[in-house]
């Protein structure tokens, strides 16, 4: 019997994502106490813009009234105050302001040996004289000051010049890196008040200043308390773990040949003595394989003076290390051995209290250790060739992937591990082997996922578009680069440091430093911090190229959008950039916008364009087909990353397909619910591990256009269709392979009526054959047996039902307007008609009209009397708020007239242009009480 696998069963990959643990403990050893602060009882309030900002003397005071009545609200971490105002349909009303967080921490005396309490609750910690307490933030956007019991603290390792503009208090500048504070000397027994001031207003010292994404304010990543012994590995190095692991020969290579001493490992740390006496430590360094075996080790003795520190630098070597290999999506690939990592651990043992272990011992004696930190590393080498692209471990490995933003509809950027894991799972389902994590450092957990699953990464700093007109801008940008490299520099997945994105000469107004010079200084700094990786940049202006100003980086990539922001012609544009560039060239962004509610058989660049009402899903697919046709035949492109994996929020963006505040170039919708057609196109090209068949343009269910070309995306060798018209006999068609995962059948849906279309695919290995059109006349096979495939065959299948409309029918967003029944006028349909609000029901199914008022917009639509009714005084409504109040679910435009800045009046009109060109004039009225 034929084995049929429908599309739904192919949505889960054969590859099981390694979830890489969770972020709770990060690199902290078991000797430390780690307390997650998500549920510390945080209270939150914020101003609006530059107004209503509380003074620290008030907001940080222990006796500050942070009750509901005083305007404070309870929150948990992660949290952003911009989750909703960037998602309300009103362009430009994102609240960039100062927010305050307050929480109470109860401190008790330690009740067990070594200063650790038996039970640690989120609101209570134990303290003792031989323990240090730190507060660790994974990410706060974008300027952060901390007050404990009313006292302002400086971030560890910060520049004294890093202060808030308003108060002059110490601050951490930058919104995407980890940073810490030492709380030890300011905590006392009993109740302690922690107050965090977070500012996401524009500050000319801090990148990014402007970009095509939202700068969400808040403590949007986890926070935790860390307690260590008074002798410990340092926690003051730009948010780094305190353990720097360098594999000098397992990184960037000048050739594809295996380097000698690949397993050489240099381990660097700083041991801190915060006690009042001289301390002698035994420092044990070990490297442990995946099975828990120690494969290399070293011990050394150090002495540290009171309240001092000493560096520890050790070198060990693994002979013939197991390689960190990238993920493999080829047919029947065995990925059981990919992404192999070792665990590097440094342990501190009190030499005065413990017998000296042998040199092979790594501190696992019965004597308790004082402190330890672990890092995972992977041994691999990689090379970028100008003519042949990217190689890893001596093999060609074209990097084909996506960019990713970290936000989500309704949540902003305050994501939990589960949402990061869902994103990553979708990315791997599509077959991605490479990620450009734009435009800033991402969550530690997301990098963990890349490390554990063999996905190669471009990591970058948030230096985008503009150079700040401030003498501190260059230094603060360099600080962000140092933070990125020191915090993420041990990761085997990261092969490239990104220095800038689309910064051009027209944005270099800074009188203290010119952009070419700043690019050189950033490049030199990256090499000084890490000589084992390439530097790169994402360019969109010719002055960055080798033949022009030659902005510094080892390799370079271009952001280019033929058929969207520039004229069509994908290959021609890339070749033009290659002609002015001597460095290896990649493609860091390409793509087009797409609405899953808009469809057209033959879209074109004249009608489909940025910031327009018409951006059909089919146009995105065709543009990506053209891009892949070029990319697949040009491996000299050292990497390609389409823009973007997911739709994302941009509060200042004008309408994209009738929707404000969104960049819709993603292959998956902002809420992650819909995979666009282009998702499956890329899966057909990149993922050979998971066979599937997908009928494109599936949401175009009612079509006035025809005949139609049916496009099928598949990673199988052959595809065929079975088509039934108005319930008649099925007719079989062999699909024509167009290459790059695209199969087509022309000339279908040539008559009005309902068409059921089944697509089937199989490997060309003799286990399944098509029943071509020559023997399909009058065929009686049903889709249940895969249209005549032989017994014991395995085929993959998909199905759609489409309607070809008659000439007198209309289309609203791909739905047949002829069948719409107004719920307010019909008692024959299911459901209550009282709350129809511009929608209709057909046999109990809600179908949106083309024009409708957005929920909670304050407007209602009265079609019968052709009125737009406002729930508030007209003169209080801005033109932009009025425009944002209504949407088309499908094609069409709304033209507003007499929308004066002084406010609307009853004399104002709105002209609605329907898809067929007819126009309707609506009056504007206030709600009558």
TrEMBL record:
InterPro entries membership: GH2_Domain-Containing, Glyco_hydro_2_cat
Which superkingdom, per the lineage?
Answer: Bacteria
Residues annotated as domain Glycoside hydrolase family 2 catalytic: 387-686
| Protein name as catalogued | Glycoside hydrolase family 2 catalytic domain-containing protein
Look up and give the organism this protein is from.
Bifidobacterium miconis
């Amino acid at each position: 019997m034929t084995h049929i696998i429908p599309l739904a069963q192919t949505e889960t990959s054969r590859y099981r994502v390694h979830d890489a643990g969770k972020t709770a403990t990060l690199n902290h050893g078991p000797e430390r106490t780690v307390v997650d602060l998500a549920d510390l009882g945080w209270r939150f309030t914020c101003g609006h813009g530059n107004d209503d900002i509380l003074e620290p003397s008030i907001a940080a005071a222990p006796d500050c009234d942070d009750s509901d009545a005083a305007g404070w609200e309870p929150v948990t971490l992660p949290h952003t105050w911009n989750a909703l105002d960037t998602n309300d349909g009103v362009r430009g009303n994102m609240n960039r302001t100062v927010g305050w967080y307050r929480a109470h921490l109860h401190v008790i005396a330690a009740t067990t040996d070594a200063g650790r309490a038996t039970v640690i609750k989120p609101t209570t910690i134990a303290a003792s004289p031989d323990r240090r307490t730190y507060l660790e933030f994974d990410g706060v956007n974008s300027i952060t000051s901390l007050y404990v019991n009313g006292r302002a603290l400086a971030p560890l390792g910060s520049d004294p010049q890093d202060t808030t503009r308003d108060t002059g208090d110490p601050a951490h500048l930058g919104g995407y890196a980890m940073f810490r504070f030492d709380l030890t000397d300011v905590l006392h027994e009993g109740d302690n008040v922690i107050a965090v001031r977070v500012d996401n207003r524009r500050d000319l010292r801090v990148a990014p200043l402007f970009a095509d994404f939202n700068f969400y304010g808040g403590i949007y990543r986890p926070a935790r308390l860390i307690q260590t012994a008074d002798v410990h590995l340092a926690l003051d190095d730009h948010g780094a773990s305190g353990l720097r692991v360098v594999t000098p020969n397992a990184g960037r290579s000048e050739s594809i040949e295996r380097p000698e001493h690949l397993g050489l490992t240099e381990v660097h740390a700083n041991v801190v003595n915060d006690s009042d006496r001289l301390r002698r430590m035994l420092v044990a360094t070990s490297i442990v394989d995946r099975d828990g075996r120690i494969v290399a080790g070293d011990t050394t003795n150090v002495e540290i003076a009171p309240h001092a520190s000493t560096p520890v630098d050790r070198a060990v070597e693994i002979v013939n290390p197991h390689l960190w290999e990238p993920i493999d999506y080829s047919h029947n690939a065995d990925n059981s051995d990919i992404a192999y990592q070792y665990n590097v651990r440094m342990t501190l043992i009190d030499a005065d209290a413990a017998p000296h272990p042998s040199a092979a011992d790594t501190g696992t004696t019965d004597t308790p250790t004082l402190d330890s930190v672990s890092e995972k590393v992977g041994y691999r080498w990689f090379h970028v060739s100008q003519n042949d692209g990217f190689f890893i471990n001596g093999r060609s490995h074209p990097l084909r992937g996506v960019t990713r933003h970290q936000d989500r509809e309704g949540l902003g950027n305050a994501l939990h591990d589960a949402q990061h894991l869902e994103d990553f799972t979708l990315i791997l389902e599509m077959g991605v082997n490479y990620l450009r994590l734009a435009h800033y450092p991402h969550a530690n957990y997301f990098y963990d996922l890349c490390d554990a699953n063999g996905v190669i990464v471009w990591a970058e700093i948030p230096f985008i578009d503009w150079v700040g007109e401030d003498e501190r801008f260059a230094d603060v940008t360099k600080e962000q680069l140092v933070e990125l490299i020191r915090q993420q520099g041990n990761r085997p997945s990261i092969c490239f440091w990104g220095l800038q994105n689309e910064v051009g000469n027209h944005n270099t107004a800074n009188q203290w430093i010119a952009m070419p010079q700043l690019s050189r200084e950033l490049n030199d700094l990256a090499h000084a911090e890490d000589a084992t990786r390439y530097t790169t940049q994402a360019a969109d202006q010719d002055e960055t190229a080798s033949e022009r100003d030659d902005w510094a980086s080892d390799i370079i990539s271009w952001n280019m959008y033929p058929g969207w922001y520039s004229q069509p012609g994908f290959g021609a544009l890339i070749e033009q950039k290659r002609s002015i560039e001597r460095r290896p060239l990649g493609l860091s962004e390409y793509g087009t916008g797409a609405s899953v509610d808009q469809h057209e058989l033959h879209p074109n660049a004249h009608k489909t364009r940025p910031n327009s009402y018409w951006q059909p899903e089919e146009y995105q697919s065709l543009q990506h087909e053209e891009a892949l046709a070029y990319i697949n035949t040009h491996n000299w492109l050292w990497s390609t990353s389409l823009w973007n994996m997911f739709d994302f929020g941009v509060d200042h963006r004008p309408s994209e397909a009738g929707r404000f505040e969104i960049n819709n170039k993603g292959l998956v919708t902002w809420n992650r619910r819909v995979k666009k057609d282009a998702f499956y196109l890329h899966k057909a090209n990149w993922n050979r591990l998971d066979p599937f068949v997908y009928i494109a343009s599936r949401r175009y269910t009612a079509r006035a256009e025809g005949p139609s070309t049916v496009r099928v995306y598949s990673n199988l060798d052959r595809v065929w269709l079975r088509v039934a018209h108005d319930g008649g006999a099925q007719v079989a068609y062999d699909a024509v392979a167009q290459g790059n995962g695209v199969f087509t059948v022309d000339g279908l849906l040539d008559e009005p009526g309902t068409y059921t279309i089944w697509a089937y695919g199989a490997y060309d290995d003799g286990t399944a054959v098509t029943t071509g059109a020559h023997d399909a006349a009058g065929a009686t096979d049903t889709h249940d047996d895969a249209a005549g495939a032989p017994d014991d065959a395995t085929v993959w299948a998909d199905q759609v039902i489409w309607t070809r409309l008659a000439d007198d029918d209309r289309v609203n967003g791909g739905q047949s307007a002829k069948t719409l029944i107004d719920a307010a006028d019909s008692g024959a349909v299911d459901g209550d008609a009282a709350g129809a609000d511009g929608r209709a029901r057909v046999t109990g199914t809600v179908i949106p009209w083309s024009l409708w008022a957005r929920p909670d917009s304050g407007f209602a639509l009265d079609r019968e009397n052709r009125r737009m009714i406002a729930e508030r005084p007209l003169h209080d409504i801005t033109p932009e708020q009025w425009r944002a109040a209504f949407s088309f679910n499908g094609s069409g435009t709304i033209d507003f007239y007499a929308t004066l800045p002084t406010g609307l009046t009853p004399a104002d009109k709105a002209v609605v242009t329907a898809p067929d060109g007819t126009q309707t004039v609506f009056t504007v009225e206030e709600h009558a009480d």
